[in-house]
Amino acid sequence: MSWDLPTPFVIDLQVGADDIDGLGHANNAVYVSWLERCAWRHSQHLGLDLAEYRRLDRAMAVLRHEIDYLASAYEGEELQMATWIVE
C-alpha cells in the first residue's frame, strides 16, 4: 500500500461484528477507536507505554483527526492503519 508520508507505523486490523452499524458497515466512530489503537501501538513500539509517560509526566496528544472515508469496511475484512510522527 502507498502512504501519504514516508516511514509509517502500520498495524493490521480485522473488522469485527461489534464494529458494524445498522447500515451493515463499520461505523465511522469505530475508526477513531482504531486510530487510538494504532497510536498506542506505535507509542509502545517506540518504548513509550503508559507507565513511561507517567514516569516522564508527559504524553503525546492528538491535535486533530482527519479521516477520508474512501470505501465502506465490512465485517471480516482486513484493513491496515498507519500513523506518523510529524512534529
Automatic annotation (TrEMBL):
InterPro entries for the chain: 4-hydroxybenzoyl-CoA_TE, HotDog_dom_sf
Ranges in coiled-coil conformation: none
Origin superkingdom: Bacteria
Keyword annotations of the record: Hydrolase
Record's keyword annotation contains Mitochondrion: no
Any one GO molecular function term: fatty acyl-CoA hydrolase activity
Statement: the UniProt record of this protein carries the keyword Calcium: no
Record's protein name: Acyl-CoA thioesterase
Organism: Aquipseudomonas alcaligenes
